[in-house]
């Protein structure tokens, strides 16, 4: 008797628990009254404990082992392979280390907030040292492949099977050529006027514009919604329910417009995963796919490729502005003073700056690459935590040409390391790389896409992404999917071509 259906049912219960946690988290960031914080923390901790128990239970391991002995289709085998991966990872960490990471990470995060405010690296240093040490212990438990390094074990949590060496091989040429492009634009080009981006944009008008865009690009509002938060995110709860959040700045409308399109890109990936579908079991029976790896996203890099594509390749394109310009002027009266072309150029300004989350498309990846180099060196021990500020400032000057004025604008700006999220940063740039490589393939296969956009029609693009990326869940790894769909391994070229091809004309070059 096949155990495959039992294994999928086991996964579904775990995913249902996870979706309850996600709902609690979403509520906490949007509507929960302040006073609810303590009780919410208890609810979340209880759920986290239950989920960890399920992920590491012997029953789960036994079901996986039983299925590994069965004769399965490729799809079913991929499902079991990925369940095995999750189980092995979860059971490799001792409970005591999981708890220590959570406890120390939570304190370190509090200290980081104060240290950033006080611009005081020395205050944060001992806590960062603890987090680096605990992360190394975690990496030791996970282990890494032959010829690899400790950092690989951490990267693997966010970008399965990627290695630091592979990432470096793509990042190095990208970094050099991007720095040169930014220099060329800022030194030889004519910078667009940023006035169109600072017109007065009332919050309700921005919301109306955002909803108009969501409907047009194909984010399904019958199975999703948009709310307001301080730190925007997207949460795909489960079948039929995907939540987006955004925030509004009345003096800078591109923040919400592109933030909403970014989260919608994540959201349309979640909506495109086969969560509401069934797949065939070994006995020819229909098995619900939700809760199996077949309805799960591949990696943070692939997830980010979807958000960045809608935000940048679509939202910052000339064709998109041909379509949205009139609607945007109807919403923000002052925008009509500027031409369509002036607005398009203004949303594509490249200007080296200190803060990663505010960086433009041209400089963003340089911020990420700097962090990758530094965290890799801290994990290997080549860079001591005490030397972090000096190393940061030196590399920043090299890569972005600016002198870092203080730690709050330098090495203390991101929350990631306080939590112990080492290995997370590269996925941001991997996302841009995957987006550009997919984009090149898409434009080859779907001629005239820009004409569609100019008419407000995004259906062909979304259908392509559904069919080629979303529907597979975790059946293929990120690198494997990239090769299968684009016919090539990941490289820096498509992103460089895309950025140069767009930004040079914007700068009159
Ligand atoms: Zn994102």
Topology:
Elements: H1 4-30, H2 37-56, H3 58-68, H4 74-92, H5 95-118, H6 121-142, H7 150-155, H8 164-188, H9 203-217, E1 224-228, E2 234-238, E3 241-246, H10 253-272, E4 278-280, E5 286-288, H11 300-314, H12 318-331, H13 340-346, H14 364-380, H15 388-400, H16 416-419, H17 426-445, H18 449-454, H19 459-468, H20 478-486, H21 493-506
Parallel strand pairs: 1-3
Antiparallel strand pairs: 2-3, 4-5
Helix pairs in contact: 1-2, 1-3, 3-4, 5-6, 8-14, 8-21, 9-10, 9-12, 10-11, 11-17, 12-13, 14-15, 14-17, 17-21
Bound molecules: zinc ion (ZN).
Zinc ion is lined by residues 262, 266, 304, 307.
Strand order of the largest sheet: 1-3-2
Regions with pLDDT < 50 over 5+ consecutive residues?
none
In sequence order, what are the helices and strands, one letter per element? HHHHHHHHHEEEHEEHHHHHHHHHHH
What gyration radius follows from the Cα positions, in whole Å?
23 Å
Helix content: 55-70%
Overall mean pLDDT score? 97
Would you tell me the structural class of the helices and strands? Answer: mainly alpha
Largest sheet, described in full?
A: 3 strands, mixed
Write out the distinct hetero groups bound to the structure.
Answer: zinc ion
Q: Count the DSSP helices.
A: 21
Report the β-strand fraction as a percent range: under 5%
Assign an overall shape.
globular
Please report the total strand number as a whole number: 5
């Amino acid at each position: 008797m096949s155990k495959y259906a039992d294994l999928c049912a086991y996964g579904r219960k775990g995913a249902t628990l996870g979706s309850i946690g996600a709902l609690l988290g979403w509520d906490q960031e949007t509507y929960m009254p302040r006073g609810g914080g303590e009780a919410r923390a208890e609810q979340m901790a209880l759920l986290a404990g239950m989920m960890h128990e399920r992920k590491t239970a012997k029953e789960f391991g036994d079901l996986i082992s039983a299925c590994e002995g069965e004769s399965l289709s490729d799809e079913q085998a991929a499902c079991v392979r990925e369940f095995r991966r999750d189980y092995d990872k979860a059971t490799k960490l001792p409970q005591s280390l999981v708890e220590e990471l959570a406890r120390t990470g939570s304190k370190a995060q509090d200290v980081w907030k104060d240290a950033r405010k006080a611009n005081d690296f020395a205050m944060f240093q001992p806590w960062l040292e603890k987090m680096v040490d605990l992360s190394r212990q975690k990496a030791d438990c996970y282990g890494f492949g032959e010829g690899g390094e400790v950092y690989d074990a951490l990267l693997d949590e966010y970008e399965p099977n990627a290695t630091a060496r592979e990432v470096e091989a793509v990042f190095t040429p990208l970094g050099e050529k991007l720095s040169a492009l930014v220099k060329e634009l800022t030194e030889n080009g004519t910078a667009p006027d940023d006035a169109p981006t600072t017109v007065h944009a009332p919050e309700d008008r921005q919301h109306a514009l955002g909803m108009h865009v969501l409907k047009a690009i194909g984010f399904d509002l019958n199975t999703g919604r948009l709310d307001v938060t301080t730190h925007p995110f997207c949460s795909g709860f489960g079948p039929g329910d995907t939540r987006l959040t955004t925030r509004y700045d009345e003096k800078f409308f591109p923040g919400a417009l592109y933030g909403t399109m970014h989260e919608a890109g994540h959201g349309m990936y979640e909506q495109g995963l086969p969560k509401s579908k069934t797949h065939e079991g070994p006995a020819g029976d229909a098995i619900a796919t939700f809760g199996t790896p077949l309805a799960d996203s591949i990696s943070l890099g692939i997830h980010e490729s979807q958000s960045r594509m809608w935000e940048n390749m679509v939202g910052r394109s000339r064709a998109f502005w041909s379509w949205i310009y009139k609607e945007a002027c109807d919403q923000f009266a002052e925008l009509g003073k500027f031409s369509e072309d002036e607005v398009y150029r203004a949303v594509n300004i490249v200007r080296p700056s200190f803060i990663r989350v505010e960086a433009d498309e041209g400089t963003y990846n340089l911020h990420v690459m700097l962090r990758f180099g530094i965290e890799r060196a801290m994990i290997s021990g080549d860079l001591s935590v005490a030397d972090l500020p000096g190393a940061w400032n030196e590399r920043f000057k090299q890569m972005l040409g600016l002198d870092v004025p203080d730690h709050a604008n330098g090495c203390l700006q991101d929350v990631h390391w306080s939590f112990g999220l080492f290995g997370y940063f590269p996925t941001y740039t991997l996302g841009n790389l995957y987006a550009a490589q997919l984009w090149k393939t898409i434009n080859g296969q779907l001629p005239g896409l820009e004409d569609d956009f100019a008419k407000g029609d995004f259906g062909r693009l979304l259908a392509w992404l559904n069919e080629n990326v979303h529907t597979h869940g975790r059946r293929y790894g990120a690198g494997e999917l990239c090769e299968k769909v684009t016919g090539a391994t990941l490289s820096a070229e498509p992103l460089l071509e895309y950025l140069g091809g767009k930004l040079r004309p914007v700068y009159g070059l």
